[in-house]
Write a structure and sequence with these properties.
heterodimer, A: about 575 residues, six-stranded parallel beta sheet, B: about 160 residues, five-stranded antiparallel beta sheet, four-stranded antiparallel beta sheet, about 40% strand
Chain lengths: ~575, ~160
């Protein structure tokens, strides 16, 4: 049967079992929206800004491991989406973005709402396509879904000129696809895995460093099995939180710039390090020269060869899909005659417990002013650790990562790589669409929340009972912290003046607003929000300590063990 | 270290910008880049000359391989290979210079492919240093225009880059 391009787009999305498309209509995508109107197999979520469409689709994917899909128009529609696309790209989130383009004959003519979408998005997508012939449309969309999900995942953009959506051709959706130029590896090199097992068994001071790859590849259970059979300590990166249960005794918490004392010290002092789906980024290992000075053997498992030996030279690189490689490792380990040296391991744990004794996350909650850490701790208690937590970017993000203990993967949704302020609210929306019964809280600050505040309207339309935890310190807190520590207390433009009344603002959008000013009110307010207002969006504006800083801290360019601790100030 | 990297890439619109964009985005350097379709019109072959430490070159080849359209990447400089570059030089060739220019072109095995009363266009192939040497050998004041293709390279013997 002959279908129009617009009909083909809809059919392809249906074939891919898409549940939600997050988008915003406009001139170049009118034919697609017209076909969307005529079908009911998937739903469309109308956001209030294209950036939020991409963030919502991104979080939909992060919290479910399905592919997030968005639909935006040409020109400003897609340029608005760029921040969202770059955010997803940095954190390797599988997504398909469909953008309208001006008609083929107008391309290059500076037409109304024209931009070079393929050119603009090229550096921030896994791949992109411009469809120039309606007969290529179905196969291109098939490729987009295939590329987004396989190998190291990422966003794929398909740019479709308007005339293509109105031309007809035979429709057939390919069942499978092969590309001679794209063959991601799955199985790890067995010789390398053997070497890794040997090295792991010989370790005296072993350390498991697990990143976002564990979450992306659904390898958390296999990682836990491996870690438990070895009895080795585990640290998670910001992106890897929930990849190993935070409440487990082998967990040392998060490492890096704001990691725990024990995690960073163990990272520096271990003799064998196994990196699992992590990429040694600058916020994690600090100064690479300092990191490299200390001699330790490194095993690195990653699906992306270019992540291996990029910032840190490794001894045993293993390229492959994490679950497959971990299975293989486990098998070899179980069939191996050797066992970890119990004496050395006991001594190592003794050392780690000493570091733990520093209690690097301690803080003081007085009677007058609410400490932001306290709010996160209470949120953890009130939600029983079972909530999906999204965050924005800044101090509150670090406190959320430090004090909300994630035991399960895909529960912690934040922008780790790009560090995009404004993701929190649209992320919470995407999470709720993917997990319609879940408790969802967005930990944010008064700076970040205002970057996509318009989505309170979308949340109302779709009745999304998100709990917004606004840690309001009237400062761009992380900027202020750096200015205090490294710029002589000159708080250049980091004070947030003329804030709205968030309670009234929430009410204006039809939600519930709460203002919490005293420590004693924190827990009751949270309980009220999660019980009485279970089905409402509640905007909780917590007025918090203006001078609180995130500790421990490794200053940029310093070594991991050179931490500034709260008590030292 | 100087490396010659050969790439087979799907011959599609924008393929070149994916490669050149990668180099600029990751601050890799390009000394020269040549590209043209192969005997199989669906594929283009690129030759890129770059310099960098072994770590940088390793990243370059890994990042190139990561591009979805790239089919194969080979660092030619890892083993025996041949490299050639083509140069066209337009020179003033009048009076006493005319005979001298012809003589030097012959010595360098260049060919004169266009002639007017006062100018020659000389075609020269070789590796880069030979082309440089030719430009050094002739009177600089007589050079009107030069154009070079950049390096093309191929492995020796059994080293074959093919799908």
């Amino acid at each position: 049967m002959q279908l129009t391009g617009a009909e083909i787009v809809i059919r392809c999305l249906q074939e891919e079992k898409v549940e939600y498309v997050f988008g915003y209509p406009g001139g170049s995508v009118l034919f697609i929206y017209d076909e969307l109107f005529k079908q009911d197999k998937f739903k469309h979520v109308l956001v209030r800004h294209e950036q939020a469409a991409v963030h919502a689709a991104d979080a939909y994917s992060r919290s479910s491991n399905k592919i997030g899909v968005c639909l935006v128009t040409s020109g400003p529609g897609v340029t608005n989406a760029v921040t969202g696309i770059a955010t997803a790209h940095m954190d390797s989130v599988p997504m398909v973005i469909i953008s309208g383009q001006v008609p083929t004959a107008y391309i290059g003519q500076d037409a109304f709402q024209e931009c070079d979408t393929v050119g603009i998005t090229r550096p921030c997508v896994k791949h992109n396509f411009l469809v120039k012939d309606v007969r290529d449309l179905a196969i291109t969309l098939k490729k987009a879904f295939y590329i987004a999900k396989t190998g190291r995942p990422g966003p794929v953009l398909v740019d479709i000129p308007k005339d293509i959506t109105n031309q007809k051709c035979e429709f057939e959706y390919p069942k499978t696809i092969t590309m001679r130029s794209y063959n991601p590896v799955v199985k790890g090199h067995s010789g390398q895995i053997k070497k890794a097992v040997q090295m792991l068994l010989e370790a005296k001071r072993p350390m498991i460093y697990a990143g976002g790859g564990v979450i992306l590849s659904d390898a958390a259970e296999k990682l836990a099995k491996l870690a438990r059979s070895l009895g080795y300590p585990v640290t998670n990166t910001l992106m890897g939180l929930g990849g190993y249960p935070a409440t487990d005794k082998q967990s040392l918490g998060m490492l890096g710039m704001h990691g725990t004392y024990e995690a960073n010290m163990a990272m520096q002092n271990c003799d064998v390090l196994i990196a699992v789906g992590a990429r040694f980024d600058d916020r994690v290992i600090g100064n690479p020269a300092n990191f490299a000075e200390i001699s330790r053997k490194i095993i690195h498992i990653d699906i992306d060869p270019s992540s291996i030996s990029k910032r840190v030279k490794v001894d045993v690189p293993i390229v492959g899909n994490l679950p497959d490689v971990l299975d293989e490792l486990q098998k070899l380990l179980e069939s191996s005659a050797g066992v970890p040296d119990p004496k050395a391991l006991a001594a190592w744990w003794k050392q780690i417990d000493e570091w733990r004794g520093k209690k690097s996350l301690k803080y003081k909650q007085g009677k007058e002013i609410i400490m932001p850490q306290y709010v996160v701790e209470k949120l953890y208690e009130v939600t029983g650790g079972e909530a999906f937590i999204t965050s924005d970017v800044g101090q509150h993000q670090m406190w959320a990562a430090q004090y909300y203990k994630f035991d399960k993967p895909r529960r912690w949704i934040n922008s780790g790589g790009l560090g995009t302020m404004g993701v929190g609210l649209p992320y919470a929306m995407g999470v709720r669409f993917a997990n319609p019964k879940a408790t969802v809280a967005c930990i944010t600050g008064e700076g970040s929340i205002q970057m996509n505040i318009q989505e309170l309207s979308t949340a109302k339309q779709f009745r999304l009972p998100i709990k917004i935890i606004n840690l309001n310190n009237r400062y761009l807190g992380m900027v202020r912290q750096w200015q205090q520590m490294f710029h002589g207390n000159r708080y250049s433009e980091s004070y947030v003046d003329a804030l709205p009344d968030f309670v009234k603002l929430a009410e204006a959008y039809g939600h519930v607003g709460m203002k919490i000013e005293r420590p004693a009110d924190v827990e009751p307010a949270l309980r009220e929000a999660f019980t009485k207002h279970k089905n409402d969006l509640v905007f909780m504006d917590f007025l918090t300590d203006q001078t609180a800083n995130v500790y421990p801290m490794v200053a940029a360019g310093k070594g991991l063990s050179e931490m500034i601790l709260a008590e030292e100030l | 270290m100087r490396h010659i990297i050969s790439i087979l890439i799907e011959n599609e619109a924008g393929a070149l910008s994916r490669v050149s964009g990668l180099f600029s985005a990751r601050a890799f350097n390009i000394e020269s880049l040549t590209v043209a379709p192969t005997e199989d019109a669906s594929l283009s072959r690129m030759t890129i000359v770059s310099t960098g430490s072994d770590d940088v070159i390793e990243q370059i080849t890994k990042q190139l391989n990561k591009l979805i359209d790239v089919v194969k990447v080979v660092d030619l400089s890892e083993a025996a290979h041949i490299e050639r570059e083509l140069m066209l030089v337009k020179v003033r060739a009048a009076g006493k210079d005319r005979e001298e220019m012809k003589r030097i072109a012959d010595i360098f095995r260049g060919r004169i492919i266009d002639v007017t009363d006062s100018t020659y266009v000389i075609e020269l192939t070789g590796n880069g240093s030979k082309l440089d040497a030719f430009l050094e050998a002739i009177d600089r004041a007589l050079i009107l225009e030069t154009v070079r293709t950049g390096v093309s390279g191929i492995g020796r013997g059994d080293r074959i880059l093919k799908v």
